[in-house]
Amino acid sequence: MTGRARDRPRPVTGIVIDRVRDGDLAKIMRDFERFWGDRELPRALHHPMFFCEFADTALAARRGTGDTSEIAGYLLGFVAPTGDGYITTLPPNPNRTNLWNPRPHSETQP
Fold first, then answer.
1. Considering the domain 9-99 in this protein, what is its CATH number?
2. Least C-beta-crowded within 10 Å: which of 22, 32, 55, 92?
3. pTM, to two decimals
4. Over the stretch 59-86, which tens digit does the pLDDT of each residue have?
């Protein structure tokens, strides 16, 4: 086996999870309401440092390939010098109304 397994993107039901790339912060901020609705607090947690300084521990779940890929979800976090890991931002699934309702958003609308 060449390379480390954790360094390669892994397909999961048509979605590939890999590290954030240049331009991902702009894509996420353009689609901010799709992930967070009208909540403003999470906007402040999307600091560019997570996409630059901590890019090794920030992940994006992508649907599609190349420049036309869509960000289906993401995780922003970091590992402290002690080795402890912290997740700062993990948006809810935009296709669900909330974490406690297993039905897709489209099924709950009148």
1. 3.40.630.30
2. 22
3. 0.69
4. 998 888 777 788 888 999 989 999 999 9
